[in-house]
Amino acid sequence: MSENDKTSFTVTGPGTPDGPTLPAAGEWQRPAGIDVGSVEEGRVKFPNWRGEADKPSAPPPAPSPPAKRVGFAVAGLGRLSLEQILPAFSQCAHARLAGLVSGSPEKAKAVAAQYGIDESAIYGYDDIARMADNEDIQVVYVVTPNGLHPQHVAAAAKAGKHVLCEKPMANTADEARRMIDACAAAHVKLMIAYRCQFEVFNSEAARLVQSGELGRPRIIEATNTQAQGPGDQWRLKAALAGGGALPDIGLYCLNGARHVLGEEPVEVYAQIVNPADDDRYREVEETMAFTLRFPSGAIAHCASSYGAHESKDMRIRLEEGWIDLENAFAYKGQRMRIARRKDKIEAVEEQRLEFKNQFALEIDHFAQCVRDDHAIATPGEEGLRDHVLMEALYRSAREGRPIRLDNTSAW
């Protein structure tokens, strides 16, 4: 290297305008408290390091130690389990995957190998009772077709395991009541997996509506549609699905309206439309539009269909503004806009919330309820209420008239 190629460095001293003061060789300066943080109640916390113009950073994760995480066995290894639920355990802070239940030993072994589950923790549907001897499993997450939920929930409860059950809870309100009774008799907890109630945008919409910040809610518009495929899938068989678009995807509109408003409908009205030339809808409905009237005066207009391009949105019209929640019922992609008057102008702002996996949130919620004996946000009674309402909606569609709901507090 020639002298011309060499780069010279100058270490500046205190008070010079040429740069910062560097410590002497071997000297170490302890970082300030804002960088080190502190430990409070077993959690590491940091002061806000950002300026006033930027939002504060989220606190660091504080997962439970592996030995204190609640062990879950997932019953049913279909698309929802393999595409969403099993991967969500990697984002859980209080739960861990500890077992599998499947009617296909070959598939169960393949999935167990992928997730590091010992083959001794694989069960068939006919030997869930054997799970009673496995203390590593505290919860069974039932992800089988709707019509099979009652027997699988009862079997898990009899084995002494708490139960997280996918929605809809069952095929009928009577089945839902029996599931609640079975879990109560076994002294285990029962939660229904209403994932959207844990999703951050849906939660913020419910908080904002119920806070009164935008006045009283008047109209909700909720839509959940998708273009359904071949007719030999279980969702199009009444014995397994209990119905068509309503219990499968319309339930998100129904439960979403109840969740956002924090009250129960007093009257419902529904209409069903089935294409006459489509054999897929001989047993279940393709499209249902329905209206819910609430005691506060709010009205929810809802629509669900297996015959329309995918749309999963909710809009809430209030006295002093509106909330537009795009992809409200989707697994991801939520966006929320809020409109209100600000002085002499109409302001429309977009809420940007940190994405959190809604499956992981609901799983962790139940894990904490089991471990710490907390009340469940979406217990079996929540699923039962939706079944009572869905049965009223089907009755309305059959009879062509509104159905008044009396004494809903006794559900």
Secondary-structure blueprint:
Layout: H1 33-36, E1 38-40, E2 43-45, E3 70-75, H2 79-88, E4 95-101, H3 105-115, E5 122-123, E6 139-142, H4 149-158, E7 162-166, H5 173-185, E8 190-193, H6 200-211, E9 217-227, H7 238-241, H8 245-261, E10 267-273, E11 287-293, E12 299-305, E13 307-318, E14 321-326, E15 335-342, E16 345-351, H9 358-372, H10 380-399, E17 403-404
Parallel strand pairs: 3-4, 3-6, 4-5, 6-7, 7-8, 9-12
Antiparallel strand pairs: 1-2, 9-13, 10-11, 10-17, 11-12, 13-14, 14-15, 15-16
Would you mind describing this structure in some detail?
β13 and β14 (321-326) form a beta hairpin. The model has no long low-confidence stretch (mean pLDDT 93). The protein is globular. It folds into 2 domains: 66-196, NAD(P)-binding Rossmann-like Domain (Rossmann fold), CATH 3.40.50; 200-353 and 379-410, Dihydrodipicolinate Reductase, domain 2 (2-Layer Sandwich), CATH 3.30.360. The chain is built from 10 helices and 17 strands. The protein is of the alpha/beta class. It has a 9-stranded mixed sheet. A 6-stranded parallel sheet has the order 5-4-3-6-7-8, with helices on both faces.
